[in-house]
Aminoglycoside N(6')-acetyltransferase type 1 (Salmonella enterica), 127 residues
Amino acid sequence: KQLWPGHPDDAHLADGEEILQADYLASFIAMADGVAIGFADASIRHDYVNGCDSSPVAFLEGIFVLPSFRQRGVAKQLIAAVQRWGANKGCREMASDTTPENTISQKVHQALGFEETERVIFYRKRC
């Protein structure tokens, strides 16, 4: 809830159910003394993923570590788990995204070994 505070509780529950049922989704939980201290949600994407050269791609949908556990390697361990899972699913690349104004997320991605590949502006038009 702290990562996506605007996401309603019932939607969080539905997302969790989908992750448990779908082979292309995974959630990794970091624990300390029996308490969840962080998580990473990931998917396997077969469609085009910006900045990637291969398919499928392991895609980091979200990552969160409790503030009191940050800077201790928890996120690095979560990313390693996602990478292993992706490799086992046939992925040669892992990708993620963030918004241009989220400079904290950008720094975290870089610290975790991600490289920026491009910046994109999305458009839509209603039919």
Remarks:
- The chain has three helices and four strands.
- The chain has a mean pLDDT of 91.
- Strands lie at 25-32, 35-45, 57-65, 93-96.
